[in-house]
Each structure stands twice: as structure tokens, then as C-alpha cells.
Amino acid sequence: MNFKLEVIGFTIDSCVLAQAAGATRIELCDNPGEGGTTPSAGFIKAARDVLQIDLYPIIRVRGGDFFYSDAEFEIMKTDVQLCKDLGCNGVVIGMLNADGTVDTGRCKQLIDIAHPLGVTFHRAFDRTNDPFKALEDIISIGCERILTSGLQPTALQGIDLIAQLIKQANGRIVIMPGSGLRSDNIIEIAENTAAVEFHTSARIYTESKMKYNNGAMKEDLRSVTVDTDEIKKITANLKDL
User: Fold this and answer.
1) 92 contacts 128 by C-beta, under 8 angstroms
2) Burial of 63 (0-12, 13-18, 19+ CB in 10 A)
3) In 30-186, at which residue ranges do the beta strands (DSSP E only) sit?
4) CATH number for the domain including 83?
5) Is 0.70 topped by the overall pTM?
6) What are 89-116's pLDDT values in tens digits?
7) Disulfide engineering: 227 pairs with which of 9, 28, 83, 204, CB 3.0-4.6 Å?
8) Alpha-carbon torsion 160, 196, 55, 207, what sign?
9) Domain tally for the chain?
10) Residue 11 is part of which domain span?
């Protein structure tokens, strides 16, 4: 089986490390504390310059919910075009209506702007009111994959629903489990869902290299990076399946 592993890149260094460790695609994000928001143009360009693997920036103007204003939507359209102009392979989107259904109209506009780039529908899916209808809606507008934890905090907790979604999708779209995916549960998730693509942050923190720190500020100056050993273990476990 030709499994694929997507890794979140929150920094340019983590993108390089993830690629070297065996990632097959980078989801490029800023602001890990917000769950990932749109990276800057400079970050996207730098990542494109150093990566040979696929690059998919997230298009998310802010943290919080996935119900966006008209002004926010205009920003997202501009960001999709920017990703296209910078040579990305795809983008990651997700918009909902207030009632928890997929905002197919505005998502389709972003997909049309992105064409011919690939489009992933992110974990806004896990906030939908009916995952089976949402799956059909997302297929109908032309996304190539859905990132989901099965409407639970982690993919392991949502494993049964993920398996049902993959069965319903029947090859029409990729269902990619993500959230809490690690080397110690990847085999269980793969074997019980029949998934072929997987998503992980493999997140660890690196200490600040500052020699001076104003302790009165009481700040955590660590930054997010990736655990290359963890990525290698995940890919090795997938190869053994």
C-alpha cells in the first residue's frame, strides 16, 4: 500500500526537518496556539523554495469558529490566489454555515480560484451537524480530501466514524485521519479504518536560544517544531503494514 503522511509545518525549520524525516506533504500553518491560521506570504515563499514535497498552506484568517464574514472571505480569496501564484501544490480550506452545514457556495468559489491546485477540506468538518451529508457536499464541490478526527478530539476516539466515512466515500475522495496521530497508534488507526493518508503534527517544543530573558515577563519562549524520530517511526510503521 502506498501510504502518505502529511505533517504540519509551523516554522520553516520544521518544514525542512519533516521533509528529511519522510513526510510526503506539508500543511503550512501559522499560530499553533490557534490551531493553525494562514501563513504569511514570506513564509509560503520560503517553504516553496526549500521543499520538494507537496505544499498545502491552510487558508484560515483567524482562530475560533469557521463561520466567516464577507470581509474575511475576501481575504481568503486573495490568500488562495497568492498560494497559486507562489507555486503551491494545493490549499487547505473549510467554511461552515451558522447551522453547522458546509458553506458549499463560498468553498466552491475558493476551489475555483485555486484550480488546478488540489484542495483539502480541513477539520471544520469535525464541527458539522451531519458528517455523512457533509461528506457528500464536499465531494460535490470538488475537494480531493477531508482531514478529520471523526468528530472527536482525536482520530483514535473517532476511529469508528472515520471507517464509516471511508466506506461511504468509496474512493471518491480521500478521508485523512488526523489529530493525536502518533507512532504508537498509527497501526491501529490504519488497520481499523482502511485509510491511506494520515496527518500528524509530531509536535515538540524547542527551547529559546536567547541568552537573556526578562523573568518578570513570565513568558514561555519555547517554539513549536517537529519530532523527526516520531515521523520516522510513523513512516516505518506504515511501511510494515
Assistant:
1) no
2) exposed
3) 54-57, 90-93, 118-121, 145-148, 174-177
4) 3.20.20.380
5) yes
6) 999 999 999 999 999 999 999 999 999 9
7) 204
8) positive
9) 1
10) 4-240
